[in-house]
Design a protein that fits this description.
about 90 residues; DUF1292 domain-containing protein; UPF0473; alpha+beta; 2 helices
Length: about 90
């Protein structure tokens, strides 16, 4: 997979084997690893005042999106993305 850009839309499969469209809200590289913050396209386009669910993922060695599995890595990445996303508001 090539470098992921903000605004890209793609499908991911959840734990129930259902496909969901997500949009990239932010992308960063930390210590040589690319991470993205994504939200469900339907939630983003609803334009309500409600908060949307944001998920953090990383590019694995094959260039595919993968979940962040360790709590330590998740906390570090979510903190950085929180700062980025809050600056954009």
């Amino acid at each position: 997979m090539d470098k992921i850009e903000v605004g890209e839309i793609f499908s991911i499969t959840d734990e129930n084997n259902e496909e969901n469209e997500v949009e990239v809200l932010a992308a960063i590289t930390i210590e040589g690893t690319d991470y993205v913050a994504v939200g469900f396209v339907d939630d983003i386009r609803d334009e309500t005042d409600e908060d949307i669910d944001v998920f953090f993922m990383k590019l694995d060695q094959e260039g595919d999106l993968a979940p962040i599995e360790s709590d330590e890595e998740f906390e570090k990445i979510s903190s950085v993305f929180d700062d980025i996303l809050n600056e954009e508001e």
